Structure formats: structure tokens, C-alpha cells
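Suppose you are handed a protein chain with no further information: no name, no annotation, nothing but its sequence. What can you learn? This example shows the usual starting point.
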Amino acid sequence: MIFHQLRGTEDVSTEMKEIAEDFKQTTENEELGGKGFQVLLNMMKNTAVRRAMVIGLLLQLFQQFSGINSVMYYSATILVMSGASSNKAIWLSTAVSTANVAFTFIGVYGVERFGRKKLLMGSMTVMMLGLTLLGIAFIVINNSAKSMEVEGVLECVADSCYSCVQMDECGICESVANGLKCLNKNTLDSNITVHCGEKMEIEDVCKTKESWLAIVGLVLYIMGFAPGMGPLPWTINSEIFPNWARDTALSLTTFMNWVCNSIISQTFLQLSNAATPSGAFFTYCAITFVGMCYFFVFLPETRGMSLENTEELFEGKITFIGLNAGYEPKKTNNSYD
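A reasonable first move is to predict its three-dimensional structure. Written in C-alpha cells, the prediction is:
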């Protein structure tokens, strides 16, 4: 029943026969390939598997280096950096998570209708738009903050909201009567009341009218990631390796995913401080663009192909590039040639 739906035909007997033959061949290949480290050596000797391994590893690398877990882990922090209050940022970050869940269903619907490669290219394009908007948003927000005049109090001397929040010990408070004041965060409550009225709160951010741009950028980025670059590295990796190498290959690509996850999540705040939030998002955008160019050239389409035949996609020479990229099939008698 499942084969009928996936292949769009009633006659799947030929493919069922291929699966049975491949199972037999897989058993023989496992005996030839050995176990453990020997399987890894055989993977490196096999041209098709080696090429597939490079694509599989890069899919996981670019998935993480596009900044997804910086966005997911630090969505509330990003919103606070854009000028939203802490309470609002926590609630607004749920919109990011909701978009992630909702748009994942588009990927489920589109993976067979549009194909893996088209969906991936569309996904990365929308992601770049979202990252570009985030970068522009922080430039606009910072420029707006620089135009917000404040009154410095004691050691917190500043001429704008932006210059005030750049000082670690200082923050902004606002009152209807006194306007914006730049105060030391450790100021006594009685002094805060004098300068800030009853609000009694010193904040680290400048609240600007342009904060909504960052929210739109975040949601747009997730709208692009969720249906494509999120699930497709896992989908494609499960399809491009022969059965005898699949377990080892998937273990290696998963390891790559978590290593890159750790790197990107631990460096976001440092990158934001060193290159500004705009620089961080433009960096992720540039990395995503490099990945899209690579996959546009080298990633073959696997839609409609059986798992038993996908190995042929990486044999021989590259014959053409683009959405129909692939390698010229090259038949060999030895599974490890």
C-alpha cells in the first residue's frame, strides 16, 4: 500500500524483487566488508560512497552553521537585543517555535511532490532572506538607538541610548516626567525613584519602533528552515548510502551534526559581541549561500529512486549541474572498487 502511494503505480513487483535481491547482496557485502573499522576503510575505498559521505557530512555542517540553534536557543535573547522587553521576548519566542512546528508539515507534504533538491534550494533561499532581514534589522535598530537622546547620571555619561547600553555597568530607565536616563545598574532604589519615577527598572536595551523587523526576520528564517534544511539532511542521508555502509555513515553524519551544533551554540554570543548582531547574521547568511551553491552543483535528486539504486548517483563523472545534477552511472563488478 505504501509503495503504491509513493511510486504512484499499482505494479511494484519489480521493485519488491530488487529489494529482495539487494537484501541478499547486502548480506554478502557485509561479509566482504567486515565489521567496525574495516567497514570505514571500505567506505573510503569506494568512490561512490566517499562522494556521498562528503555530501552527507556537509549537509549536517551547513544545517548547523546556518545558525539554526543560535536562533532556537537564543531567540529570546535576540529579541531582547532588538529592543523587546524580557517578558515580551519570552512570549514572542514562542512564535518562533510555533512557526518551526507549523512549517515542518510543509516539508512533509512537499518532499515527494517537489523533490529533495528543489525543496532544499527554496528552503535555503528563504533562510538567507530571513538572515539578511535580521542583519538589516539590527543595523536599523542600532541607528535608531543612536538617535535617542539620554541624560547621563553620575558615572554613566552617555549622549544616546545606544552608547549607554554599550557600557556594562549602565542601563536605561524611562519615565513620563524625566524621559530617558542612563543610570548605574547598582543605583539605590531611592535614587532610581528620583530619576525614573515609580517604574523602578533599569534595562539593558533600547526600545525602538523598529524591533518588529527582528521578529519578522526570525519567523521568516524559521519558515525557510523548517520544511527544508531542517529535515532534509536526515532524509537525504538515509537515502544516499548503500545498505552495507548506511549504519556507519549515518553515525558519522550524526556526529558531525552534534559537533557543529555545539560549536555554533557556544560561539553565537561571542560572535555577536565581536562582529555585532548584524555581523553575526550576515556571517550565517554567507555560510548558507556557500552551502546552497555547493548543493546546487553536487547534490543529485533522489526523489522516486529506490534505496537500492541511489549508489549509482555518485558513480562516474559529473555530467551536468543544477537541479538535475548527477554523476554518470558507472557499473562495476566489485562492490568496493
